[in-house]
Amino acid sequence: MEQLTIKTSTHDYPVVIDQGLRFKLKSFLNKDYPSIYIITDSNVAPLYLDDVYNALKANYHVSYSIVPAGEESKSSRVYFDLMTQLIEAGVDRDGLVIALGGGMIGDLAGFVAASYLRGIDYIQMPTTILAHDSSVGGKVAINHPLGKNLIGAFYPPVAVLYDVETLQTIPFQEIRSGYAEIAKHSMIHTPPFWEQIKPVTLDESLSDATLIRDLIHGINVKAAIVERDEKEANIRQFLNFGHTLGHAIESELGYGKMTHGEAVAIGMLFAMELSEQYFSVTLPIEAFHNWLKRNDYPLTLPRLSVNQLMTRMKRDKKTKNQTIKMVLLKTLGEPVIIDMEDRSLRQQLEAFLEKMVIR
Ligand SMILES: NC(=O)c1ccc[n+]([C@@H]2O[C@H](COP(=O)([O-])OP(=O)(O)OC[C@H]3O[C@@H](n4cnc5c(N)ncnc54)[C@H](O)[C@@H]3O)[C@@H](O)[C@H]2O)c1
Ligand SMILES: O=C(O)C(=O)C[C@@H](O)[C@H](O)[C@H](O)COP(=O)(O)O
Ligand SMILES: [Zn+2]
Known about the structure:
single chain, alpha/beta, Rossmann fold, 42% helix, binds nicotinamide-adenine-dinucleotide, binds the ligand O=C(O)C(=O)C[C@@H](O)[C@H](O)[C@H](O)COP(=O)(O)O, binds zinc ion, 3-dehydroquinate synthase, Dehydroquinate_synthase, DHQ_synth_fam, lyase, nucleotide binding
């Protein structure tokens, strides 16, 4: 078992990483909750809902909702339906929400918990690799058709219980998606650990030991950053490496058409190219590109409108005074936030997308 504690402005919470945690939930509940409400999705429910429900039902009043799997459920409609279900179930201010699933569920259920009755406790139970990132740090949100995560809060959970046994059932595309955020952590951290990720192949040969090593490394990077800058006043923006374009691609294509990690991977490639030009440095772009290719990441895009992408990037939460900010790398492990000038960003984006279309 691995455990760390995250300090926030309101409380500290544990991140526990172990096999089979879903069977031992009771021992991690530090309050006598009158009701527990599990929120999960239609892929995770048949696999793990019973285990979680059965681990609690003898001691607590437990209810649940199952939302359709997929990014489209991180929506105002599903959010509102969940609110209705919690009200009808009579969950009060002493209730607990359990977010059982990947980052979609963590963000959605976390935002439900943050806003229901002005905020009740919630536990993150991540079940994807990507959720090593989303379950830590307290960013919760739903999407708006105009942009990703535009409606949300900083609202830390009371615990993150990462039962890594659940990762055995995730499909390959989701292994890829999650490893993109691990690669992100490997490149923004000092010292960088990209050299550790570079040889990893995301197929049957990926061992549990490698996966757990990389997950723990990623979680430690994330934890260290969010502890120092919980509300993203400064260095937390580094965690947005690859996201300025990645989020624009996700929303422009339509939520769920490309996974979050796949879109962020493309965004990282673009940010690396911009970094090389901006700082006249050499980054391991070719090695990263080869890694993405070897692991079957999508490296082509349909022809997208550069105007639309620019408009979407302007709606990014880092934007101030209409100036798009990008996380660039001065060198591997040394991220910086740069105000981008529209004209040159547009030109570089056009050139980048042209390569993505024909590659
Ligand atoms: N809050 C944050 O800090 C943060 C960080 C990174 C990403 N995110 C958000 O996270 C979301 C992406 O998360 P995700 O990649 O986990 O997507 P997801 O939650 O949609 O899960 C991906 C797919 O895997 C399925 N699944 C989940 N766990 C499974 C399991 N154990 N076995 C089999 N199938 C399983 C899901 O049903 C879904 O189909 C995006 O909305 C992104 O914006 C948030
Ligand atoms: O925790 C953060 O901060 C991050 O930026 C982590 C990202 O991987 C994640 O996708 C996050 O949801 C993006 O945040 P946003 O503020 O750009 O919506
Ligand atoms: Zn992300």
